[in-house]
Protein: Pyrroline-5-carboxylate reductase
Amino acid sequence: MKNEKISVIGCGNLGKSIAKGLLDDKDFSSENVIATRRNLSLIKDLEEAGAEITSDNCYAVSKSNIILIAVKPYNVSKIIKEIKPALIEGEHIIVSLATGLGTAEISEMLDGKFPVFRAMPNIAANIGESVTCICGKNSDQEQTAKVKFIFDSIGESLIINEELMEAATVLGACGTAYVLRFIRAMVQGGIQIGLDSKTATAMVNQTVKGAAELLIERKMHPEFEIDKVTTPKGCTILGLNEMEHNGFSSSLIKGIVTSFEKIEK
Structure:
């Protein structure tokens, strides 16, 4: 990947996060990153970090091999029409970050001549902790590995079948909001039982981080770790049972399914 040149078309919040992830990656040369945005003053920090910045999308494409299109879904066709004359068959790989646009639609815009990928990061890309799901069309293993490398620079990435992308969006992208709402509720509970807001927030944030790290490191089912802290007649099991009596797990599952049904439409 050291010799691959990557252009990020449309460096808003998400595009900028990906560019920063690449610039921070020691296995990637910063001079191989080109970032575009109409207002260059908003991405000056990327230039200071070693990237080339430009407002000319066609120029960026002509100087790169992998094209990340990081614009809103309704702008994708406009961008593709703009950069199409600069694309060279056999040289360019296209990656779309637009929600709801399938690889078949994007490939059709490109006359089926290019490998096309669809990637779905989440807002934790801003701190290099995103989970990104990726699927591709007209692509081979080497091209897939190159695209995965890019998104591994902002967290963890998974290659999945495209029919699962909507489900992945709900769990990985919408899921961030679900977890944050859970954290907010824990903080509110902590305040009610006597802790000040600052202390409760610090405790809850670290508790959630520690719980996630336990599962990541030990690769165990959540119930395995839960069993370690639920002693007979103890306060933990009483609290868990009260939450379940009030529909804690079922309401979360219903929320996930409702979001999925909405995104499927």
